[in-house]
Amino acid sequence: MKTCLVVDDSKVIRKVARHILETLDFSVREACDGREALDACLESAPDVILLDWNMPVMSGMEFLQALRASDIASRPKVVFCTTENGMSYIRAAIEAGADEYVMKPFDRDTLESKLQIVGLA
Amino acid sequence: MSVRTTAPCRPDASPAPACSANALAVLSTLLEVRTGQQLASYRSWRLDTALKPLLRARGLETLDQLVVQLLDGQDKTIGDRIVDALVNGETSFFRDQPVFDLIAEGLSGVERRRGRTRIWCAGCATGQEPLSLAMMFAERAESSGETPPDIVATDISEASLARARAARYNQFEIQRGLPIRRMMRWFTADEADWVAQPQLLRMIQYRRLNLVAEGPPAGRFDAILCRNVLLYLSPATKAQVFARLASALAPGGLLVLGAGETVIGQTGLFEPSKTLRGLYVRTGA
């Protein structure tokens, strides 16, 4: 079964994303910020990470930079999922090593489409 | 809350507008006469959901009232509005992505052998399909040096064509099927929407065309995409359309149907391509 780590400080977003991902046959874990997400990845790297940008403790961008600099061999796919919808944010995310980008608000079709694009749905 | 959980095109939970059997028959006949599409029972819910915005715009409460307006003949545009609302415009960028790779493979070298490549998108809806082709071939032209193809894109719905020509997509539409790198490369943000760059639109000619009632656009095409259009047609109408598509296809040209469609058992004019699995060629070509 494919695995996804949902990283978002909003409980509602995590719940909705989990619901969609489970209907797409993903096994889902959750983290509330970048620090928790990094710990989760070091314990067991998922196939894909759905990543919010603005979070307390460690932001999505800080997490991504730390993830890509880490020695996690499997290189999980990273799909940013954020309300930061400007082109400068999108460009920065891709340059930092994100594989795809979901602009919130999103729906099931959007999420499924983006997971297909990274080869996981 | 920043998650939308219900797609806008899905039926909502509000009560369906009342519709008598007579009104249903009138609307079904209008759709079939204008487009050849049959309103099979499994699609009848579309009547209710698809026509709700039109009812609201005209201050009507029931489909019967709409049919009365249609039949009294005073408003000459109402038939077009109804058909526009009922035609299924479901589409997305790079829908069934592997098909695009097959088209590129099949058309590789055509320009060298026959001159500028021409593609017809029959039933282009709001333009995502021709724009996907335009992006793909513009990118390939940069490395191959080949001239990108001319794309003729047709649809029966003037409303869909107006949206296709504007090439402006909201956040939900732009994210369906379009990889983020292509969005960055080929679209510009404009307030909450994303607008395709003029370079892509210069590759596409949009025209209104009723596939069931009119002949194909002039000239021959190296590939024709007619995806998810034929499945709504009766066998007899389908046969007519296959004949029109066949007459428009250049020798060695490719026919591309939707993922759930086939020529097998439908027409003798086409057969599966021996080299490009899922695409079709003229029989005996």
TrEMBL record, chain A:
The answer to whether UniProt assigns keyword ATP-binding to this entry is no
Q: Which Pfam families match?
A: Response_reg
> Domain Response regulatory spans what residues?
3-119
Q: Which GO terms describe its biological process?
A: phosphorelay signal transduction system
Per the record, residues carrying 4-aspartylphosphate are 52
Q: Where is the signal peptide?
A: none
Q: Which domain of life is it from?
A: Bacteria
Matching entries from SMART domains are given as: REC
Q: Which InterPro entries match?
A: CheY-like_superfamily, Sig_transdc_resp-reg_receiver, ST_Response_Regulator
Output the CDD domains linked to this UniProt entry.
Answer: REC_hyHK_CKI1_RcsC-like
Record's keyword terms, sorted: Phosphoprotein
Among PROSITE patterns, the record links this protein to: RESPONSE_REGULATORY
- Name of the molecule in the record: Response regulator
> From which organism does this entry originate?
Sphingomonas metalli
Automatic annotation (TrEMBL), chain B:
| Signal peptide region | none
One Pfam family linked to the record: CheR
Q: Where is the CheR-type methyltransferase domain?
A: 27-271
The protein's matches in Gene3D superfamilies, at most eight in alphabetical order, are given as: Vaccinia Virus protein VP39
Q: Which organism is it from?
A: Sphingomonas metalli
The protein's GO terms of the molecular function aspect are:
S-adenosylmethionine-dependent methyltransferase activity
For this protein, the record's InterPro entries field holds: Bact_Chemotaxis_MeTrfase, CheR_C, CheR_MeTrfase, SAM-dependent_MTases_sf
A single GO BP: methylation
Provide the protein name. Chemotaxis protein methyltransferase
Q: Give the record's keywords alphabetically.
A: Methyltransferase, Transferase
Q: Does the keyword Iron apply?
A: no
Q: Does the keyword field hold tRNA processing? A: no
